[in-house]
Amino acid sequence: MPVATATVLLAPDWQTRTAAHEARIDRWAAPHRERRSRGETHPVHDFLFTYYSETPGRLRRWHPGVGTALAPSADGPAPHAGWRWYRAGDDGVVTLDAAGYLADRGTTVEFVRGLLAATAGRPVFTGCFGLHEWAMVYRADERRHALPLRLGRAGTDAVVEAAQIRCSHYDAFRFFTPEAVGRNRLQPTRETQPAMEQPGCLHATMDLYKWAYKLGPAVPGELLADCFDLAADVRELDMRASPYDLRDAGYTPVAIETPDGRTEYAAAQRGFAARGAELRRRLLDVCASLTLA
To answer: Superkingdom of this entry's organism (predicted)?
Structure first.
């Protein structure tokens, strides 16, 4: 359970955790920066830096999280002292100014808390089979990704027409082609998002990363990185199960148009939902801790 008493990290401890976080993020951020400098793209990984708004630089910045303070080093207070929503005491100990943070970001914290709690309270649904990506290209001449379709134009449309689409995630649904919108059994909106998101949804699971960085410095760097790692794994399945052919990029398709492919997809979906449930709980603890700090 969240507690109000602050834990103070000695300088060698927070310096070690800072270095570990930077190295962990650099596994993803460094290749992205290198590709960008060469004008290259990646069909799977770039999504994590283009669709989501957190920059590699901000992602690389380690935070102790609410309830954890940083003791000064021999060089003085931790660099966080000069960052927004932090304060340094007369003893050089740096803490998150939870009251100031909530004054600025309280509405966001409350929205995230409500959305995560509502999603956590629903059962996992695994019957969508990634058809949202197929609905985004249904009967369309232009595609969001410059990649070939694995089944071609007619074959892709046939999969959509033979399926029952049940997408509950607004930020996936809003990219459906006009011809695909009416084929979705659900019609999510931004306003109904807290009432419709469910923990088996790949996009709701990826979005745990978004909510982690939206909660900003209140989230420990380790939790932010855990959410990013999960989003990266989910994104890979998302694209492998899509209508796009990524075999030249080294990705084996998950053929959701077949019974075996749907079984493989649903099993992976359940595994991601289990990982997401634990991260969702940890994010909810952050929200609760903010009110106690």
So the answer is: Bacteria
- Residue 276 is part of which domain span? 7-292
Whether 121 is covered by a domain: the verdict is: yes
Q: What is the pTM of this model?
A: 0.94
Q: Note whether residue 164 is domain-resident.
A: yes
The secondary structure element, H or E, covering residue 70 is strand 68-70
Q: Tell me how far apart the alpha carbons of residues 135 and 293 are, in angstroms, rounded to a whole number.
A: 45
- CA separation for the pair 150, 142 (Å, rounded): 15
- Asked if the structure places residue 2 within a domain, the reply is no
CB atoms within 10 A of CB 133: 21
Res. 293 pLDDT band, cuts 50 70 90: low
Q: Does 1 reside within a domain?
A: no
Q: Are 198 and 273 in contact (CB under 8 A)?
A: no
> Does residue 165 register a pLDDT over 50?
yes
Q: Which long-range contacts (CB under 8 A, 24 or more apart) does 69-77 make?
A: 69/6, 69/7, 69/8, 69/9, 69/93, 69/94, 69/95, 70/8, 70/9, 70/11, 70/14, 70/94, 70/95, 71/8, 71/9, 71/10, 71/11, 71/14, 72/11, 73/11, 73/15, 74/11
Q: How many residues does the chain have?
A: 293
In whole angstroms, give the CA distance from residue 40 to residue 182.
36
Number of domains, the chain: 1
